[in-house]
């Protein structure tokens, strides 16, 4: 169990613009020497984020006019509505991410599973089993599961992915409160936790971090992080990065 009294920056960005969110996560990933950072956010307008390796042509027919951006992390497309998005940015030698990549997913998802269990669901890593939310041929992240995804009620409810570079790691994750027209059949929290908001869920996760010895403190962006995130916001929805033709 991780019990280290180490300072973390904590950020909340509710109803943020999609491109800004992606640019800020990039800035946090590239921020050498920055303390570990935990960030929670929601999107306005709701948007579709493509995985880093997805082809735009494969996803565009499902977008139906939604705002679109591309993430720095892999996986399928995510409809960012009725959900809590989180990101973690820190050095790769931090105890949460040290060692095998697989083990770091297990640590983070284990922490989240403890929180979700308090809400009345029974989350578990999918493992070798199957879930009914999988839909072969779908471009959506929550319609394709891996053995490390968190599932309950026979469906996927938490998906996450990492990007590692220059000794740093960015861990993106999405936790579904409810599905949408683009993400049907996924595991949902609202049926067992009526009235739960993304902000409520974020607070619960924060308390779990703190119980493990992580000291969370409201953070401030450095001048360079602020400059990069503002200057790069438009890039993540640009024709160049989306790969539109």
Characterise the protein shown here:
- The protein is an alpha/beta fold and 245 residues long.
- It has one domain: Bira Bifunctional Protein, Domain 2 (BirA Bifunctional Protein, domain 2, 2-Layer Sandwich).
- The strands form 2 sheets. The chain has an 8-stranded mixed sheet, sandwiched between helices. The chain has a 3-stranded mixed sheet with strand order 4-3-5, sandwiched between helices.
- A hairpin with a 2-residue loop joins strand 9 and strand 10.
- The model has no long low-confidence stretch (mean pLDDT 95).
Would you spell out the secondary-structure blueprint of this structure?
Elements: E1 6-16, H1 18-29, E2 37-43, E3 47-50, H2 56-63, E4 67-70, E5 78-80, E6 83-91, H3 101-118, E7 124-125, E8 150-152, E9 155-165, E10 168-176, H4 198-211, E11 214-218, H5 223-232, H6 239-242
Parallel strand pairs: 1-2, 1-11, 3-4
Antiparallel strand pairs: 2-6, 3-5, 6-10, 7-8, 8-9, 9-10
Helix pairs in contact: 1-5, 3-4
């Amino acid at each position: 169990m991780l019990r280290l009294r180490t300072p973390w920056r904590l950020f909340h960005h509710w109803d943020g613009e999609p491109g800004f969110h992606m640019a800020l996560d990039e800035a946090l990933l590239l921020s050498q020497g920055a303390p570990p950072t935990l960030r929670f956010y929601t999107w306005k307008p709701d948007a579709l984020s493509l995985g880093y390796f997805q082809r735009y042509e494969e996803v565009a027919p499902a977008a139906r006019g939604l705002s679109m951006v591309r993430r720095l992390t892999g996986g399928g497309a995510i409809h960012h509505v009725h959900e809590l998005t989180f990101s973690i940015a820190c050095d790769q030698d931090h105890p949460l991410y040290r060692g095998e990549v697989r083990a770091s997913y297990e640590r983070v998802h284990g922490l989240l599973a403890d929180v979700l269990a308090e809400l009345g669901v029974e989350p578990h890593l999918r493992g070798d089993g199957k879930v009914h939310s999988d839909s072969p041929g779908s471009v959506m992240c929550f319609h394709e599961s891996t053995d490390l995804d968190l599932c309950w009620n026979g469906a996927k409810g938490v998906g996450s992915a990492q990007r590692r570079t220059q000794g740093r790691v960015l861990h993106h994750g999405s936790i579904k409160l409810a599905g949408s027209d683009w993400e049907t059949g996924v595991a949902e929290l609202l049926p067992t936790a009526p009235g739960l908001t993304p902000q409520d869920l974020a607070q619960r996760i924060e308390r779990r971090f703190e119980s493990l010895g992580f000291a969370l403190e409201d953070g401030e962006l450095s001048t360079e992080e602020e400059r990069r995130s503002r200057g790069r916001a438009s890039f993540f929805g640009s024709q160049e990065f989306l790969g539109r033709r």
